[in-house]
Sequence to fold (197 residues):
Amino acid sequence: MSSLPQACTRFTFEDYLVWEPTQELRHEYLNGEVFAMTGARRNHVTVTVNLTSALRNLVRGTPCRVYASDMKLRIASADAACYPDVSVSCDERDRRTDLFIAHPLLIIEVLSPSTAAWDRSRKFDLYRQIDTLQEYVLIEPELRSVDVFRRRPAGDWLFQPFRDDEAVELAALGCTLPMALIYEDVDFPPDAAADPD
Fold:
């Protein structure tokens, strides 16, 4: 997940693509500025691996590809590039690029305390500019809490929360994921049983 510290310098997107591989840390890009990525906690990584594995099994044999958090997502209309925790693209154009994808069907972010507000607001604003995006999913790694935002035909977004032991519906892929699978091997903190609302 990215934090939003002071910007290092200004870049074009092409400069950023050349510069970033020479750095020790990954960086997200927004309008010429770059922002260093921070490390993730154990539950965050566990949920991300669970989702990547489950979705890979679901799309096997289809034109869709699952990408983990090391694949950049280019949002040309916003002059931005992010690293979603998990993304799925079924678009042929994304199989022709090596450094980033730009046409995802599904994006999943596993929340962390330092970036949750960013993921829920400005980052979602950026993602909504992607015309192929059908679902945006936010997952709390310390609670059984998954929020799905689904694009409707009129272009607006429907919010659907899933809690406790509900199966999470991913309409973009025509599947459901059990909470037990999403949170497999997650060690919940003692107060995680409390209602998040």
User: Anything to note?
Assistant: Residues 40-186 form a domain with the tt1808, chain A fold (CATH 3.90.1570.10). The longest strand covers residues 145-151.
